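New to this. Help decode the following:
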Amino acid sequence: MTDNTILQTHNEGIAVLTLNNPDRRNVLSLEVLEALQTALNSISQDRDIRVVIIKSLGPVFSSGHDLRQLINASIESQELLFSVCTRVMTSIRNLPQPVIAQVQGLATAAGCQLVATCDLAIASADASFATPGVQIGLFCTTPGVAVSRAIGAKRSMEMLLTGQPISADYAAEIGLINRVVSPDDLEQSVLNLARQIGGASSSTVVLGKQVFYKQVELGTSDAYQLAEETMVRNLQDEDAREGISAFLEKRDPKWNN
């Protein structure tokens, strides 16, 4: 990348995108969102990347949108910012590779939205989460889309209507994140999870993620219909035949991709 807005590394099939503005609490400014979108576009085409980690530098994961870019801005500028943010969140969900949020400190507003959007999230014990827009007269409506789909209506509305932060332990209890680890173990825990996922068949993971998000939006009958068709489709894949054969023969599989 041409600047340091987002740091990007790629090793052992794992891409790491790091928000790199700790002095500004890793705000999701238009520039940061555009850099994230560029990185995601590139990753989506890279078959060597099997898992993505999104993390940040400093004591705050992300404080959300840059309010300086919202206040007194033109309607066109405001529309652009939210449009780019939605595009980033949609790209994470549509990305072939699973995305893991590595969360330390505070994740608020669009920062909380980013965590809720990622496929998986691990947080340190000192992390907290909030959608505090109501306290400044700007309801966290767009963050609420991702948060409500992660934790349901009642708990989302409590976060949205009060703006009060919740602890990492409570966030894990209600399903906003997967689990809580000590600050010293955060990076290694996320890396271990990424390696575990990366060790599976890439084609199987890509298909599984794609269809999972399709079926959760369907009614039960349609979801099962899609799932049945996908299972049959999956069985035609070379890696499925190899994986089943390896299991029956009590050996490690050799994935084609």
In short: The chain has a mean pLDDT of 96. The chain is about 50% helix and 15% strand. The chain has two domains: 6-198, 202-248.
